């Protein structure tokens, strides 16, 4: 019932280019009522909210209702995870509300019953535009953050394969390319989310950055992250090391690892980046993409991988494409099988 | 429109537009900018309420008009003319004035983004304010837009009059439509020229509209300058003969 009404409302208020202009009056503010689970309000403008702000306690009775996240939590859990227009909405209204959706509830159920001895299960959220894939991913991430998992959240993989100002030849592997800016911003946000784990996890190998700098075996992961943030040239390698170490140590049982990637079809698509001789670069030649591909393989245990398909930022894909076989075409073609294993 | 075209060319008042067209259909000459419709074409009427009235309510004249419309041809309505509740003539006129090189899509999206920016700023102010101040904050962007433009309209204008080989700026009353035009023109010129190159139009416009709404800012200052000039040239008022 709510879906029909919201579709009606959205048709009535839609102007051109998909922008919604609400000529609402003061009355609408007063009718937004804070509800407890069961009761539905007849007026279509009043949104049903729920006072249950703990994602672990969300059940079928909360389906279709909004729960709000305190703004302090937002800064630590989602420094980079939310879509930009959503961040604008949060700033305007001073509150962040997620809708509890059925696929998110299903995913929460699976995550609550994960067996950490088995290899990490990969979950893929797909659907048409505007149906809530990114925000369901954020809902699940909030749940994991509340339960003290280590969150490896890549907000939009499409940003790593297009519009890159600086492409350097990788210091580690001459065939690949580094993206210092994207890597350093990601490291900064990763540090904000997972402060407490960075001192606990120790590196298991010695890493030599250059003639003067190196990180010893047994030093905390924080050093690698600091090195990546301060020395922007080594940021991509720092990201690679962080991913490798986390993958290696996730089975130790010290922490649970959640890998959340939005727009996973970017890793197997095409890039718009070119070399100096104008020849196109394939995604596997980017070091960040290469490391991320290794991260989403299910050869490690002690956590879960949640992925989202996204046509919105994708390159060279038609607007109406949303199914996995349309957006992940290259991946399926390469393996030549109906099911994809990577 | 057929009517203004005739008024604009007073010398041809004897000839109808159809005759003009016959005169001008010379080979090698093509008309630009004149309406391709003949004088027999009527203007379209997109008022839903007008058509919803039941038969009994119509007067004799209106029934006669309806009968005429069955045989007379009607011009095609332009795509910007709607019977929608959201269509605002002031906003449409402003959008057309902002448009450059016929790019209506861009002008319209800039207009929408401006209204959204105005609304967001007001909402942030509302949420930051205390309970007493909240009642005074206006959040409807259309109300803000209309009142801002009304505040920018000059009351009196200056007209250049030729006397003794010199042009004198004489204070004179100006028509409503000229005042509205001047308010919009000043607003757009201010935002285009006097801002930093890298700021976007919605940002600039929303800032200027909010200032004009509070009777502050450079556009209001320009209106006051116009009034002061008119006051200063008060002595020349007798040059005006209408």
TrEMBL record, chain A:
Localization annotation: Mitochondrion
Keyword terms, alphabetized: Mitochondrion, Ribonucleoprotein, Ribosomal protein, Transit peptide
Domain of life: Eukaryota
One GO MF term attached to the UniProt entry: structural constituent of ribosome
GO CC terms of this entry: mitochondrial small ribosomal subunit
Main location (coarse class): mitochondrion
Entry-linked InterPro entries: Ribosomal_mS29, Ribosomal_mS29_met
GO biological process: apoptotic process
One protein family per Pfam: DAP3
Alphabetized PANTHER family for the sequence: MITOCHONDRIAL 28S RIBOSOMAL PROTEIN S29 (PTHR12810), SMALL RIBOSOMAL SUBUNIT PROTEIN MS29 (PTHR12810:SF0)
Similarity annotation: Belongs to the mitochondrion-specific ribosomal protein mS29 family.
Protein name, entry field: Small ribosomal subunit protein mS29
Native species: Dipodomys ordii
Organism lineage string: Eukaryota, Metazoa, Chordata, Craniata, Vertebrata
Automatic annotation (TrEMBL), chain B:
Pfam families for this protein: Ribosomal_S7 (PF00177)
Protein name: Small ribosomal subunit protein uS7m
Cellular component GO terms, alphabetical: mitochondrial inner membrane; mitochondrial small ribosomal subunit
UniProt family annotation: Belongs to the universal ribosomal protein uS7 family.
Primary location class: mitochondrion
PANTHER family hit by this protein: RIBOSOMAL PROTEIN S7
Subunit organization: Component of the mitochondrial ribosome small subunit (28S) which comprises a 12S rRNA and about 30 distinct proteins.
CDD domains according to UniProt: uS7_Mitochondria_Mammalian
Keywords in alphabetical order: Mitochondrion, Ribonucleoprotein, Ribosomal protein, Transit peptide
Claim: Transit peptide is one of the keywords in the record: yes
GO BP: translation
Region (Disordered): 43-79
Biased composition (Basic and acidic residues): 43-70
């Amino acid at each position: 019932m709510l879906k029909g009404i919201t579709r009606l409302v959205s048709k009535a208020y839609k102007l051109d280019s998909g922008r919604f202009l609400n000529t609402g009056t003061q009355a609408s503010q007063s009718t937004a009522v804070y509800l407890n689970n069961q009761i539905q309000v007849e007026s279509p403008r009043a949104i049903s909210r729920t006072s249950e702000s703990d994602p672990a306690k969300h059940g079928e009775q909360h389906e279709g209702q909004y729960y709000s996240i305190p703004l302090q939590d937002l800064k630590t859990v989602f420094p980079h995870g939310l879509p930009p227009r959503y961040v604008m909405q949060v700033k305007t209204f001073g509150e962040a509300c997620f809708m509890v959706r059925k696929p998110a509830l299903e995913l929460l159920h699976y995550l609550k019953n994960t067996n950490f001895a088995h290899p990490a299960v990969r979950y893929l959220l797909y659907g048409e535009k505007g149906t809530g894939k990114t925000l369901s991913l954020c809902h699940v991430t909030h749940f994991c953050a509340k339960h003290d998992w280590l969150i490896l959240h890549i907000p939009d993989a499409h940003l790593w394969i297009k519009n890159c100002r600086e492409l350097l030849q990788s210091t580690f592997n001459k065939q690949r390319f580094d993206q210092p800016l994207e890597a350093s911003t990601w490291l900064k946000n990763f540090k904000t989310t997972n402060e407490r784990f960075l001192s606990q996890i120790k590196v298991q190998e010695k890493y030599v950055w250059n003639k003067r700098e190196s990180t010893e075996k047994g030093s905390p992961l924080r050093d690698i992250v600091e090195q990546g943030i301060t020395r922007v040239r080594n940021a991509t390698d720092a990201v690679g090391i962080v991913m490798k170490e986390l993958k290696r140590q996730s089975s130790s049982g010290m922490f649970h690892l959640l890998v959340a990637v939005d727009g996973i079809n970017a890793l197997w698509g095409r890039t718009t980046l070119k070399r100096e001789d104008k020849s196109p670069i394939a995604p596997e030649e980017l070091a960040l993409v290469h490391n991320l591909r290794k991260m989403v393989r299910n050869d490690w245990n002690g956590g879960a991988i949640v992925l989202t398909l996204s046509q919105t930022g994708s390159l060279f894909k038609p607007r109406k494409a949303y199914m996995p076989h349309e957006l992940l075409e290259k991946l399926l073609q390469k393996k030549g099988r109906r099911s994809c294993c990577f | 429109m057929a009517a203004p075209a005739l008024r604009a060319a007073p010398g041809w008042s004897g000839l109808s537009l159809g005759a003009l067209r016959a005169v001008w259909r010379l080979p090698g000459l093509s008309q630009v900018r004149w309406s391709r419709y003949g004088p027999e074409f009527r203007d379209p009427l997109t008022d839903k309420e007008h058509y919803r009235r039941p038969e009994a309510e119509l007067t004799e004249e209106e029934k006669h008009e309806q009968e005429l419309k069955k045989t007379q041809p009607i011009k095609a309505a332009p795509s910007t003319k709607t019977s929608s509740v959201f269509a605002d003539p002031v906003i449409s006129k402003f959008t057309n004035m902002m448009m450059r090189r016929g790019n209506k899509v861009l002008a319209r999206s800039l207009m929408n983004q401006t209204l959204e920016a105005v609304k967001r700023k007001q909402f942030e102010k509302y949420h930051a304010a205390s309970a007493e101040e909240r009642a005074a904050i206006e959040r409807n962007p259309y109300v803000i837009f209309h009142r801002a433009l009304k505040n920018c309209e000059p009351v009196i204008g200056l007209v250049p009059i030729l006397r003794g080989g010199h042009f004198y700026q004489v204070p004179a009353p100006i028509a409503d439509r000229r005042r509205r035009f001047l308010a919009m023109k000043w607003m757009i010129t201010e935002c285009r020229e006097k801002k930093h190159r890298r700021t976007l139009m919605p940002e600039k416009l929303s800032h200027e509209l909010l200032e004009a709404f509070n009777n502050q800012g450079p556009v209001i200052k320009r209106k006051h300058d116009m009034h002061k000039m008119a006051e200063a040239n008060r002595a020349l008022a007798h040059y005006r003969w209408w």
